[in-house]
Recover the amino acids of this structure.
């Protein structure tokens, strides 16, 4: 009996509370500095904890702040007596593995396919169903995410010794991901599903200026979201990122340490035509990382830490992100 009560409570919270799980990053940008075909595997990890309105900090090291500062929240619908606590020990952990293939056609065109797999782990310290408290509620949602196809046109030119690369592009996000994951006949909340169930358009552009040693890259992309088969229309999203880097040699390897910033913004979602006021918002991140090039292989690592954010509603906040990538250049 306790097992089924536990499952019911967790699913009730998932379907009625508004989380900040949806991936605002339209495309995790990989800066290919030469127009070459490649295959790659990319791993992204996003971690959320702490409630800003309760005075919590967001810590990527999983160590809770002010663990006794919790607030009881009544579920707005469902059976009487069902409540949950927003606690500093609550966290959400999202992992994405992407398989990428890029085909360079001629000197200027690139055609790319991105296929993601998403694994999510969510933990809530305490759920309460009178008269039985349930603690340490942890569960997982795993499945294929939405595939993305992209076409870019790269134009390069020189001013003296400095090379410029301008690359506009357009993409389409396909509804290939799981959008109706469920348990015990109840569907999880739309915003923590691996997929969205909708076709979306993506417009993007990048600009790179570099010489033999240093460089600056800038990326901008915008995603226009259509309504999905589950009567959900995610808010339109846009991201901007810029890095400055320096290149130096270690034996036969080239190492490019970089620092920069990243910004993401999402409009509010619509569910069955009604605006969800507990969705959307923006976050600013610091970021630092490095690319290591050895022959035809490139290893990329990037860490992002938020320094300012405004999310709509009393939702759990960004704590930090890690991105890793391994690329093999084919030609």
């Amino acid at each position: 009996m306790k097992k089924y009560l536990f499952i019911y409570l967790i699913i009730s919270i998932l379907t009625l509370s508004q989380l900040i799980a949806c991936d605002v990053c339209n495309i995790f940008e990989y800066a290919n500095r030469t127009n070459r075909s490649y295959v790659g595997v990319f791993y992204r990890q996003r971690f959320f904890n702490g409630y800003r309105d309760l005075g919590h900090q967001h810590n990527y090291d999983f160590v809770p702040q002010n663990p006794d500062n919790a607030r009881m929240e009544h579920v707005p619908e469902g059976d009487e007596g069902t409540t949950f606590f927003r606690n500093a020990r609550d966290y959400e952990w999202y992992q994405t593995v992407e398989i990428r293939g890029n085909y360079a056609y001629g000197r200027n065109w690139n055609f790319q396919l991105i296929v993601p797999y998403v694994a999510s782990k969510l933990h809530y310290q305490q759920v309460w169903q009178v008269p039985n408290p349930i603690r340490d509620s942890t569960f997982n949602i795993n499945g294929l995410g939405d595939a993305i196809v992209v076409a870019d046109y790269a134009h390069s030119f020189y001013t003296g010794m400095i090379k410029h690369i301008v690359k506009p592009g357009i993409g389409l996000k396909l509804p290939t991901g799981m959008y109706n994951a469920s348990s015990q006949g109840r569907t999880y909340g739309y915003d923590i599903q691996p997929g969205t169930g909708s076709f979306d358009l993506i417009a993007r552009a990048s600009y790179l200026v570099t010489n033999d040693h240093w460089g600056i890259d800038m990326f901008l992309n915008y995603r226009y979201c259509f309504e999905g088969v589950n009567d959900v229309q995610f808010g339109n999203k846009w991201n901007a990122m810029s890095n400055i880097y320096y290149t130096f040699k270690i034996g036969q390897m080239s190492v490019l340490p970089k620092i920069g910033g990243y910004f993401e913004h999402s409009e509010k979602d619509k569910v069955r035509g009604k605006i969800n006021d507990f969705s959307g918002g923006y976050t600013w991140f610091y970021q630092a990382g490095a690319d290591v090039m050895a022959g035809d292989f490139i290893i990329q690592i990037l860490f992002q830490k938020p320094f300012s954010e405004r999310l709509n509603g009393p939702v759990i906040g960004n704590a930090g992100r890690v991105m890793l990538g391994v690329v093999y250049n084919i030609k």
